[in-house]
Each structure stands twice: as C-alpha cells, then as structure tokens.
UniProtKB/TrEMBL annotation:
Keyword Cytoplasm recorded: no
Pfam families in UniProt: T7SS_ESX1_EccB
InterPro entries to which the protein is assigned, alphabetical: T7SS_EccB, T7SS_EccB_R1
Chain positions covered by the region annotation Disordered: 328-348
Sorted UniProt keywords: Membrane, Transmembrane, Transmembrane helix
Protein name as catalogued: Type VII secretion protein EccB
C-alpha cells in the first residue's frame, strides 16, 4: 500500500506534467515551465539595482550632471564653498543668497505651497554663469531649525530663587522639565506697589483702598516680588474690584432676616464641605459672588474685617433658593478661595515658575522649587522690557503666536537662539518649511519680551528679501 510520502510525490509529478502540457505542450519536458519567467524577473531586478547604483554613484562623483538645479523651486548649494544660489531663467543668471531663509523664500516664490528642494551642485557646473547682486534679509538667522526640532512645550517661565543680594531673575526656557510642584496661589508684587493674585493660571490685579493703604486683600497668601517681567508675561485676567452697591443699609430684612444692602454672608457648599459659598445683598436682591469678590467688598465696606461676614443657615434661606440666585462674580475668576502653598514650602526663598504644556496651553501651572537655567557669573538684570535669560538648545526653535489671535492666517514668530523672527503669513511659513508645524499660543506680554531678531519692520517673507549690496561695474561672468 502506498505511503503518504509516495502519494505526495505522485501528486507533484502529476501536477508538473499537467502544467508542462498546458504551457509547453509537452508533458515530458524536463525544464520547469515557469523557469523563464523567474529568470527574466531576476535579471530585470538586477539590472534595475545596477542602474540605480550607477546613477547614485555618478551623482556623488559629479553632482552637476543633474540639470534639475535650473528648474524652479530649487535652492542651489555650492558643494565646495557652501554658498547658496537661486537660478533665474530671466537672463540665465544666478542670484547669490545671503542666508538660508531668504534662499527658501526666493526659490519658493510668492505662491509657495511647500519648502523648495535644496540641490548640491559643484562649482565647475556654476562657472561661467553671470551672477546678480547678493540678496537676503538683513539680520536673518544663518541657520533655521528643522521642522521636527521646532517645539516649545513645556514652556517654563521662572523667577529664580533670590541670590545673596536678594535679587531675582526672570528666565524663559523652552522644552523645559515638568512643574516641580502642584499648583498654588500667591500674590505677586509689582515695583509700582500694585499687587496681582496669581490664581487659576491667570493674574488678577487686586483692589486697594486709596484712602487706606494698610488694607490688603487675601492677607493669608504669600507676597513675592517675582519681577515685573514675570507678571507682564502671565495671562491677563480681569481685575478684582468691589461691586458698587447703592443704598448701603437699605432693604433691611427684605430678603433675609437681619440682612441689608452691603451685608455679606457665607454658606457651606453642598458639593464641597471644604469650600464656602458667598453672598451679598444688593439693590437687585441677594446675589452670589466669588471669594475674591467677597474679599474686595470686605475691604471697601467693612474695613477688612471678616467679622462682619454672617454665616447663613437653613433657616435664613426660607423663601429663597440659594442655588438659583443670580451671579455677580467677576468673570473668569474662580468661585473658590485661593489655596496657597504648604506651610513648610518657604516659597519666598525658592524659584516661582509658570509652565505651559500641550495639555494646558492657556492656563499655566504655577509651581515652586523648579530648577532654573544656570546664570553666567556676575549676571545682571536686563534693562528694558525683556526676559533676563532665554534658554533653548542650539538648532532648536519654537513657533509662537499671540494667544489673542485665532485666525489660521495669523502671524507666527520663530524663536531661535533666544530671539524671535516674525513670519507674517502661511505662504512664508510653507516656504521656510514650517507649513505643517503647529503654532503655540502665548500671551502678548510674554511674546513682547522676547527680543526681535530683525529691525526696521523686516520679517521672514519674500517682501523683505532685497539686494544687500549694489552691483559693481566690474561684476561679470
């Protein structure tokens, strides 16, 4: 009886004879019927590999053999000198470019849909071509960071720990470490004696009684001179000012027994026993306010004494639904009482930082004790409206926009080597290679404190590319 192996051999033999009879018309032909097809495929692939390798080697040995550099949308790089050119078919000449940004903008043209190609060409291939005067953007960066190296987050602004003389410095660091602590609230003191509460990722200017400088809001929070630049760079919130209540003392007992206009009350929150809800009676009745609004009213109408704040119980709310009362809270101010740092944090002697992240682009995390960039010896505070130190890795960058502008056509700002370069439109961003790079929103106060890399209204756009030196009479091929 035939074994399984014998049956498999018989099946293979029968299949081979059948295929040979159909293809070669000879079932006894010993040559495999598909051998010619396989051989032809192998030879074709081998020839293709040889041709590709040959052209690659030729391109390395003689890069000028590729005539593509005379096409539009190409930045020409001289392999020997590193000089950059853009070929102009009008007059068959080369336009020397002073910087890579200008070269890309010039090669891409006014309707750029992407970054132009860069081709390496030997000097021998360029010899004999007439050259135009050098063009460029005066002050443009010598190098541009690659698109994959353009990222701001985490973006950290710090007021450094005081030095031996008590001086703090304001630093801005790109691609920084995460916040070193949980968020907290504090009062930032400006050199003009104004105060700002830093709370919920924003700054709110605190109200002060012009007739009594001894009264201060939120006296339980630490007060720190973080630096004017630090305050200016924070997202702007509305100032905390007391409600203007007309007829103080009127309507006594009209809504709540023993309550009149200007009286303030507290009640335990139904959802969070650690926080209270705050109310005040106005000419429109009893309204709900935030903790900070309450504090401002205490300063204005009660000489800063919280003893005048009444605790309201269930019996006081008869006939009133406190959960449906109108709100007179200052917009964008949190309801709750701001929570300061732990008692043992000693924040007055530590760094204070605000960190923007991809998850929190609009309301930075406030932290303390973060590591800050190393300052040079004998470092001095920067004079003028700018950060004392901007730290970022070489050949990296960030693409920023003003947080108040939501238009996709808005201007962008490339930050590299600690200075910013304006890019006015999307077309210019595409030409520079940043068409797909996300813009990071930052407050205007932060953006304005990064020094400008260009002067005289210039920016990284084709309109700013100009002749940098006039043509000389002896210039020729």
């Amino acid at each position: 009886m035939a074994t399984r192996k014998d049956l498999l051999k018989a099946q293979a033999f029968t299949s081979r004879r059948m295929i040979a009879s159909f293809i070669n018309r000879d079932p006894d032909d010993p040559t495999p019927p598909l051998r010619r097809v396989g051989m032809a495929t192998f030879v074709s692939v081998l020839l293709g590999v040889i041709l590709v390798a040959g052209y690659t080697l030729m391109g390395l040995i003689r890069p000028d053999s590729n005539p593509g550099w005379k096409e539009g949308g190409v930045v020409i790089s001289d392999t020997e000198s590193g000089a950059l050119f853009v070929y102009s078919p009008e007059g068959d000449l080369l336009i020397p470019m002073a910087d890579v940004a200008s070269a890309r903008l010039k090669a891409a043209g006014a309707e750029a849909d992407g970054r132009p190609r860069t081709m390496n060409v030997r000097t021998d291939a360029l010899r004999g071509l007439r050259q135009a005067p050098v063009e460029g953007i005066d002050g443009a960066p010598r190098q541009l960071p690659a698109a994959e190296d353009v990222d701001a987050y985490p973006l950290k602004m710090c007021s450094t720990a005081p030095d031996l003389s008590g001086e703090r410095f304001v630093t801005l660091e790109f691609n920084a470490s995460p916040p070193a602590s949980d968020g907290f609230a504090f009062v930032a003191q400006h050199s003009d004696r104004s105060e700002y509460i830093i709370f919920g990722g924003k700054k709110h200017r605190l109200w002060t009684d012009p007739t009594n400088s001894g009264l201060t809001m939120v006296p339980d929070l630490p007060r720190i001179e973080v630096g004017n630049a630090w305050i200016a760079a924070m997202p702007e919130g509305l100032p905390i000012t007391p409600l203007d209540i007309q007829g103080i003392g009127d309507d006594h007992g009209r809504y709540i027994a023993g309550f009149a206009r200007g009286d303030i009350g507290r009640a335990e929150a139904s959802t969070d026993p650690t926080q209270d809800q705050w109310f005040v009676q106005t000419e429109e009745g009893v309204v709900r306010i935030s903790y900070l609004d309450m504090d401002a009213l205490v300063q204005k109408y009660h000489q800063g004494s919280t003893n005048q704040v009444r605790t309201l119980g269930a019996q006081d709310w008869k006939g009133l639904d406190r959960f449906s009362l109108p709100s007179r809270r200052t917009p964008d101010v949190p309801w709750d009482q701001p929570v300061g740092p732990p008692q043992d944090a000693n924040v007055e002697s530590r760094s204070i930082c605000a960190t923007w992240t991809e998850d929190r682009p609009d309301d930075p995390v406030i932290s303390y004790g973060d590591e800050t960039p190393e300052l040079p010896a004998n470092f001095r505070v920067t004079v003028g409206n700018s950060f004392d130190l901007i730290a970022m890795e070489p050949l990296t960058g960030a693409l920023l926009r003003h947080s108040g502008s939501q238009s996709p056509e808005t201007a962008a700002f490339l930050v590299a080597d600690g200075v910013k370069y304006a890019i006015p439109d999307v077309v210019s961003r595409r030409a520079l290679g940043y068409g797909e790079t996300a813009l990071v929103p930052v407050p205007g106060g932060l953006l304005s404190q990064i020094p400008d890399g260009l002067r005289g209204g210039r920016n990284l756009s084709l309109d700013s590319v100009q002749v940098l030196r006039p043509p000389s009479s002896d210039e020729g091929p």
